[in-house]
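Before a colleague's protein record goes any further, I have to sign it off. Alongside the sequence sits a line of tokens, each denoting a local backbone shape. I want your independent view on whether this chain really folds as the tokens say. Where you disagree with what is written, explain briefly why. This is what I was given:
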Amino acid sequence: MKTVYFLILIAAFSTMLGCNYIKSDHPQADVADEYATNLTAKSIIQYTDSIDKNLTQLSKSTSLVYMLGDLSFYVEKYSLANKAILVIEHAYNGGISNSLKRYYFKNDSLILEKDKNELVNEEGTVFKDTRTYLRSNTVFKIENKTAATQSAINSLPYIDLPLSKNNKPDQSYLENVNSLNNVLNGSDKFDVVFESITTYPDSRYIILRSKIQNSYSASVLVKERDAFIDSLLNDPINFKDQKLNFKWVVKDNEAIYVPVANNTSANGLNK
């Protein structure tokens, strides 16, 4: 049941590159022609491959690492001209499941969802990759493949899945995107406030919790103290239940606090 819950919970550019890709290596080329071309699975893959090759040219933002029970996850967004073109969801459910989902957008419309799932059961580990193609917010093609090892699944071709076997309504894909935006924006049930700052022999964490009871929490590893961290340590009650404003990076699936410059006051960081 936990696995099912995990899978449920974890819930523009150019014309398709074609000949235009020879003229421009950038995925945003000829964006005005987007609706003049009917999207196909092949053209979508060409387009999304170009995004993957140009990630270093895009603006990137990352959510906190959220937790609920054994589940932890975070979301990355890659944007161009303030428009999201790729959103990546990383999710881990203890030793039971790992999931990597990539959502590709063109002119603010979701056109491809790529899922890579790793599930551990009584018989061993199962790897499953799925690609879901959308056109005008409607699924028109699904394909997947399954194997017992990562190397094996990489060598297998995708197999078409009849749309009649897809039990997910088209609207659910858009709802997933809305949820991911909430994660990135720290809004709704992902709006977290200060709970405490804990000190262990070898590590220190800022603990955040959702304003909604029995909902998500987040922790941020503090490797280096600054004036703001000193304020939290010296007077945590003063910050209790308040929204904190600070920077972080995610490394090895963990959010890490980024110290404030010495000329920035601690009070300026606390909303």
Observations:
- The chain has a mean pLDDT of 85.
- Residues 21 and 146 are 32 Å apart (CA to CA).
- The chain has two domains: 2-185, 191-269.
